[in-house]
UniProtKB/TrEMBL annotation:
Keywords: Cell cycle, Cell division, Chromosome partition, Cytoplasm. This is Segregation and condensation protein B. NCBIfam families: SMC-Scp complex subunit ScpB. It comes from Sphingomonas hankookensis. The keyword Cell division applies. The keyword Membrane does not apply. PANTHER family: SEGREGATION AND CONDENSATION PROTEIN B (PTHR34298). Pfam families: SMC_ScpB.
Length: 188
């Protein structure tokens, strides 16, 4: 017979419309080892049609990746991000919280407001407060939706320069840019 506490945690997660933290789950089920229950549920669902997944500090049930195609009725028409949007997203992800001035300084060109608007509309970046400098510019950070979309548990899972180089994803100009980043931007 399954532990009633584990069943209660499973029921709360199953009924939830959004991923939940351990504290959110505990608010429903009360005292008990929620983390141990999550580990049990995760193990019980391994290899099945759906499983318990942790993204950052949030937990939710998700269709097994190899079966997701059965649930697609219509093909989603994916919109490709512009190079400016991809670069802006990468800068925000690696340097968050980042202001428009930070992004322009790293990219070496001005960005249009529309570039950040596209990333905001996609739900991948969010305003992260204002920097305490003259003009108090708005800073941006990535969201949980960004982590979910790219299958990351946290920003620490982003690939490093060596990973990108090993995958041949850096062009020669990008290698020069990477060496500047590695040196901290010092040209002296």
């Amino acid at each position: 017979m399954t532990d009633p506490f584990v069943r209660a945690v499973e029921a709360v997660l199953f009924a939830s419309e959004a991923p939940m933290t351990v504290a959110m789950i505990a608010a429903y089920v009360g005292d008990g080892d929620v983390r141990a229950a999550l580990t049990t549920i995760e193990a019980d669902h391994a290899g099945r049609g759906f499983g318990l997944v942790r993204r950052g500090e949030h937990w939710h049930f998700e269709t097994a990746p190899d079966l997701a195609h059965f649930l697609r009725r219509d093909r989603d028409e994916s919109r490709r991000l512009s190079r400016a949007a991809i670069e802006t997203l990468a800068i925000i992800a690696y340097h968050e919280p980042a202001t428009r001035a930070d992004i322009e300084s790293i990219r070496g060109v001005q960005i249009s407001k529309g570039t950040i608007d596209v990333l905001l509309a996609a739900g991948w970046v969010r305003p992260a407060g204002r920097r305490e400098v003259p003009g108090r510019p708005l800073a941006y950070a990535t969201t949980q939706a960004f982590l979910d979309h790219f299958g990351l548990n946290s920003r620490r899972d982003l690939p490093g320069i060596d990973d990108l180089r090993a995958a041949s994803l850096l062009e020669p100009i990008d290698d020069a840019f990477a060496s500047v980043l590695e040196s901290g931007g010092d040209s002296d």
